[in-house]
User: Fold this.
Amino acid sequence: MPPARPVRRALPLLLALAPLPLAPLALAPVPAFAQASAADLVSKVDIPYSQFTLPNGLRVIVHTDRKAPVVAVSIWYDVGSKHEPKGKTGFAHLFEHLMFNGSEHAPGDYFEPMQQIGATDMNGNTWFDRTNYFQTVPTGALETALFLESDRMGYLLGGVDQAKLDNQRGVVQNEKRQGDNQPYGLVEYAQLDGLLPADHPYGHTTIGSMKDLDGATLDDVRSWFVGHYGPNNAVLVLAGDIDAKTAKRLVTKYFGAIPRGPKVAPVKVDIPALPARKDVTLKDHVATTRLYRWWAVPGLNDPEATPLAIGAHVLGGLASSRLDNQLVKGEQLAVSVTAQVQQFAQLGIFEVTADVKPGVDPAVLAKRLDEILADYIAKGPTADEVRRVAMSDVSARIGSLEQVGDSGGKAAVLGQGLLYSNDPGHYKKELAEIAAATPERVRAAMGKWLSRPVFALSVVPGERDAYAEAGNGTTAPASATAEAAPAPTTGPAPTKPFAKDVDRSQLPTVGSFANVDFPAVETTTLSNGIKVHLARRTGLPTLRLSVSFDAGKAADPKTAQGTQALTLAMLKEGTASRTSIQIAEEQERLGANISVGASLDRTTVSLYALTPNLAPSLDLLADVILHPAFDAKELERVRAGLLTAIAQERTDPRSLARRTFFPALYGPEHPYGVGSSGTGDPAVVARLTSHDLAAFHRKWLRADTAEIFAVGDITLADLTAQLESRFGPWPMTRDLPGKKDFSAAPPAARPRIILVDRPQSPQSMIYGGMILPGKGRDDITDLVAANDILGGNFLARINMDLRESKGWSYGAYSVVERNAENIAYVVVAPVQADKTGESIAALRTNITDFLGGKGITSAELERTVNGSIRELPGGYETSGTVLSQMQRDALLGRPFDYVESLATRYKAQTAPALDAAARAAINPASLFWVVVGDKAVVMPQLAKLGLPVEIAPGQPNDSGSAPAPAAHEERK
Assistant:
């Protein structure tokens, strides 16, 4: 399973009651009213499907969507961590990892053939109730995907041996370390320990304990597979460029001969109640105290599940939530609040959080939080709040209908419905319940379940308790232990071929592959000179639009870093005619969402809107961009939130590394020499005034630096008319716009290690890199392809070495970071603490060998070229990906049909050309390294590498100060 999506941190997509993918913002002079209500739009949320069951019990769902020549293949097994017996915690997830290490007729890594056919959105996921595997493949390669999925369903055991088990045990233990190493990373353990009995099916984490992972054996592998991975315990979903007749023929061909497995007994789950309120304090390396409140509530099929989810959303999920309005914006006791129901098949957890504002006594916030909760539970929400939740939910679901695959697309919605509720169309029932929900139903459900005793946890800054490591209290994974005491290298015997099974002696022959058909982009210009670009897509009644400004983090003043971040944070906190609460509420009524963001080169204000409500949604967008108030009172509140965010970054391993690495890479005077988040220097943020923010807005967010990009269900003429009326009068001001100064050259390469001490870290975060020659607009197609082989994907040499061979990391990679004015090579590797030095040595060896005598092989070239070409059609399935590509093309000076030319260019690539591109750009002798880890553990390791070691300041700022040499360096 790739490291991009940690399995135990994500929540199931059962009720889409979270905010839309874009963070809230927006307003206009006249109140905006929806032209379409949630009830009007419910009928538009539709995923037509057909369904059949094979004689062996495999249930199959088929959904046809011909917009792209791809098919999502999603398989759901009714087994998760709730099925694990005592002493075997974490095994469901460990087994999921083994499913990617090859089966009897497809030995080797599962990702190898999948990359060859151009699979996208590929991963696996384990949670309490299920394990699922998914990929989206070109239509011509569907049989290959079905062959591989069926082979690991029917013929896995002969492909597993002790070495694979030991390796994946080490990988999973590093996944656990990576999650545990985060601020608040130990909360899930405390949550389940405090809320549920130890023997409750949901009473332990999916990742499991180090001790139980150490104890997993090949016998466990066999019994788990035989007991849970039969076709009668699975649901297969095919969604995309396929019909039911074809699906039935192919599924029968590849899965039909697999015999039924044993019937899996249902798990009995109670919803326990605490005998009395429970208060617990947990110390952690965090920037601010966080208060938690939890109750056990019913699972998703209970009639009260939807009212509880609505209640949580009103309480702390809406941008205008009760807790937000009272504790963050009103009394200003907290800097952030949340409320949600973590919904599982047979249990739910109602969760409330509040982060204490610096300077506030946590006891004061705790008291007010409990008072507000008690009042809300007793009185319930208003009718308007319930309607706003419904509109937000329906709008979000409409937006999600573009994607057939991944973990949240249409295949997942149908599969989860059948697995959990015995109904692929269960989402319609949820929508109907949401549309029909009343304040009284919500109040009654909350009164029933939240009047029971609460579990209250406070996570406070302080030193953690001793970390429970693998093995005998060391950081060595089980794979290292196995080296000392060799275990048998063979696994279970190969499975006897099933009668009447398909020929499995070779993979199916792939069919033809279509090139990507990128939407045609039309361009026009508003009367004041702002360019507008539209890619029309008519499948859904939505529009995604970004107003892009030539600013970005590079525009942040070197003497006042954090100005842009605070300016952007204030855009959504009030205009000349609307308060922040009015802005949030109007978005929710419209089903719209406005977000702000910045890359190094561009600043964007973006809108997601339903086209029936587009006019009032554009009014909101225009008001936010043109008329921000920068109110002094709101500024103090937002300032406190940003300062807390900066403090939180300084407790997070990855953020610490990035705040140190990029200023060192580009130099403090270079516009790109800022910590990647761009949040800035806390000393600067603390002193900025409303005048400073208004001045930055005037200088950088203006008509003569703006360009508009849009994708959606609208004509160019209609969009232009609507934009002209709102943005056309925006004058090109007389004063000159801001100009970024790139005259400061990045510093000369200076190989060294910068160590950021983070005590009690079970894992070290490693960053390495160098500036490459050239600029972002240069043609670096061959260099990017070469890096794909070195470090750019799961099968790349760096990841296969540190993760799949050594088991020291959950995932390591390298990227060619491409910005308008510079290109950089960046290596990222979170590794277990006791392997920090050896990991850097291994990275240096991999890079040096790749650029020397061990260049690209013919197999690596074939895999990369095939994958790059064949994955193109699946890469632009959604409006969001199209919108991003349009903006990227404009930034780098490329035509909007650029991606359609890539297949021809990939076909012409050769190993010598890719080797030459990499060798001309990357010099392994110029790399420097940043390590965030426990100095006491890693310093002796780093001293052996032959590089100078410098100690970073304890609190690095974006503007940075020079690291100090380590003590042993001074002696040298």
About this structure: Residues 253 and 502 are 6 Å apart (CA to CA).
